[in-house]
Amino acid sequence: MWSPEREAEAPAGGDPAGLLPPEWEEDEERMSFLFSAFKRSREVNSTDWDSKMGFWAPLVLSHSRRQGVVRLRLRDLQEAFQRKGSVPLGLATVLQDLLRRGELQRESDFMASVDSSWISWGVGVFLLKPLKWTLSNMLGDNKVPAEEVLVAVELLKEKAEEVYRLYQNSPLSSHPVVALSELSTLCAGSCPDERTFYLVLLQLQKEKRVTVLEQNGEKIVKFARGPHAKVSPVNDVDVGVYQLMQSEQLLSRKVESLSQEAERCKEEARRACRAGKKQLALRSLKAKQRTEKRIEALHAKLDTVQGILDRIYASQTDQMVFNAYQAGVGALKLSMKDVTVEKAESLVDQIQELCDTQDEVSQTLAGGVTNGLDFDSEELEKELDILLRDTTKEPLDLPENPPETFYTNSVPNPRISDAELEAELEKLSLSEGGLVPSSKSPKRQLEPTL
Could you tell me if 162 and 70 are in contact, meaning their C-beta atoms sit under 8 angstroms apart? Predict the structure, then answer.
């Protein structure tokens, strides 16, 4: 499903039709409705009005974000959203609604809300407005002219944040003051044109993150030190440091130029020697030596300037550390405002007293409940002794031993009657000694063996 957020993630540039919602190519009836003009008032048909506005308003902003621009015109949007030779008839109404909601702002109104006196073309924007724009505003006509430049407020804020991060991550951030020309070169990839770059600086100035000053015909920009800090006005120290930085750059360029000149003199002397022109070679060598002496002198000056700048940067770092320490001490004092040694000792004593009370309560609860009956332990001991003595006098009623049964195998013994056992006993007696069995002889019960 299409949404402005998904479209905004698409890469910038290219044919916008390839990144438009699906119904753009598939639903002719729907697109005919969306390309038609709005009614005079929303009260006539609020459903149709809201449907068109809900389609075009996000699409206009997402298209601008995808293109990486913060400035837009009605004419450019009409060209971008052409479909089969037709242009949307309600784009002017959409822009009016975005202006009413504050999501768009006229470029001239935005510049009037910020001090833009340092911009060379700032005054011209107000003076060169077409006469019909002025008459339209005077007569109360809220129509948006096709050539009027509008600013996407949220996109401008995003672009300003991008430029600020770009500066913070660059070598220029070593000092808060930077030349406007150097900053413009740094932001060339983020700001497609000069007017966008100036609008971004105005937005940062509106957020109190930069301030711009013209010094000796050159504009310098001062950034706030932190992402949430407010920029301070440009002072004499900032101007002095900026001048030192410019001197350092000038000296570095001069040294590089003289080094190339010395190398050129050296080559001329070599060629003169090969050609046998000794005097010309000597003059070239003398010029080389003079240039090298100038380079040495410039190097000494450059070292001095760099040393001063290093000390300034170190002092600024020391100041930042000092401010951090000071803030930390202040925060610690506030956090320890109501804490004293006496209060701490009193608190520890209270904790110990509560712990002792808890231990006593636990011991009391562990003693159990007697339900009002008090037992004498000595009487209980005597009664227990009597019971033990009576128990030793009585014979023990033990169960009888069960008859022993021997098994020689795991197979069960067969059952044999008494008559069979008597007959077997007689046979044994007769065979062993002629003994005569007597009826009075005791009977033995033999266990059969297997």
Answer: no
User: Do 383 and 251 belong to one domain?
Assistant: yes
Looking at the fold, whether 62 and 180 belong to one and the same domain comes out as: no
> 61: which 2 tokens?
């902003």
Residues 267 and 338 grouped into a single domain? yes
122 — pLDDT class (breaks 50, 70, 90): very low
- 213 and 250 inside one domain: no
Q: How many domains does the chain have?
A: 3
pTM given for the model: 0.59
**At 152, phi and psi to the nearest 5?**
-80, 110
| Mean pLDDT computed over 416-435 | 63
Which of 347, 119, 299 minimizes the C-alpha distance to 213? 119
DSSP string of 44-61, one letter each residue = T-HHHHHHHHHHHHHHHH
In 3-state terms, the chain is what percent helix, strand and coil (to 5)? 60, 5, 35
Residue where a domain stops, chosen among 331, 354, 387: 387
Range of the domain at 42: 15-100
Domain containing residue 200: CATH number? 1.10.10
Cα–Cα distance measured from residue 287 to residue 293, given in angstroms and rounded to the nearest whole number: 10
- pLDDT tens digit sequence for 345-386: 888 988 988 898 988 888 888 775 555 555 567 777 777 778
Answer yes or no: do 243 and 205 share one domain.
no
> pLDDT by residue (tens digit) across 52-110?
899 999 999 999 998 889 999 999 999 989 888 888 998 999 999 999 999 999 998 89
Buried b (16+ CB within 10 A) or exposed e, 415-446: eeeeeeeeeeeeeeeeeeeeeeeeeeeeeeee
